[in-house]
Amino acid sequence: MNRLNAATRTAVISCLLEGCSIRATVRMTGVSKKTVMRLLGEAGTVCARYQDELFRNLSTRRVQVDELWGFNYCKRKNVTPEIAAKVPGAGDIWLWVAIDADSKLVLSYRLGDRGAGTAYEFMQDVAARLRHRIQLTSDGHRVYLDAVESAFGMDIDYAMLQKVYGEDPQPEKRYSPAKILSTQLEVIKGDPDPKHISTSYVERQNWTVRTNMRRYTRLSNGFSRKLENHEAAVALNYFAYNFIKIHRTLRVTPAMAAKVTDRLFDVSDIVALLEASEGKKAA
After folding, report:
1. pTM for this one?
2. How many CB atoms lie within 10 A of CB 229?
3. Which of 38, 18, 113 is nearest to 71 (CA)?
4. Of all helices (H) and strands (E), which one includes residue 110?
5. What's the CA gap between 145 and 119, in Å, rounded?
6. 148-158, pLDDT tens digit by residue?
């Protein structure tokens, strides 16, 4: 089977990481849509595996977690029995994210619903990657309570930050965010430092996702039609966020700030990982 050369693969992945749609990537690179989709899946798989293996025994001390809404194929309200049977994973899908508040490394993420089962899996994964006792801040989503208890027991300083929203006295515009009236702090376990009870960094990271990842751009037709493509795009973009893109404040990548690597990666490194994976399979 003919395969794209490294330069073409680098060009295709670069387009995807710049927020280009699949069709725009096809037009700019001359690579067929089917091939672009296959490359997305393969690159996403190796990026997910690389991060999963590398992000272990981290020296993180402060973690913020949050959930980000998206959808696959169509929104939940539009899922019919026929669609559900034809498209596995169709409907709403939530992206759970854990960020190191100091290095800004996204050390764990998980796709699923917004229920207790996904929360449990997510927090178990977060706990498995950490070396020290941490201070954790989440929003007021109550499924975190049992999930954090199961993952950390008493060995954590944990607080919830609950935002209180109000109604705008003026007629609301469609998609306008509700006004935040106040925030409420609730210490759940341990002795968290009040100065660091915050979800600001993870919420800012959510904005980065919606800006850079085509599938999370609001009011667009860039959503995924297959769950596998959605998962691959998320893995690929988090690799770029952690290893390739320099954080404007830190002046290094989050992975460098977290000391999981000592160098700046680029897109060619993704291609090198992909070729190394193919070499192992061939052997």
Report:
1. 0.90
2. 18
3. 113
4. strand 106-112
5. 9
6. 999 999 999 99
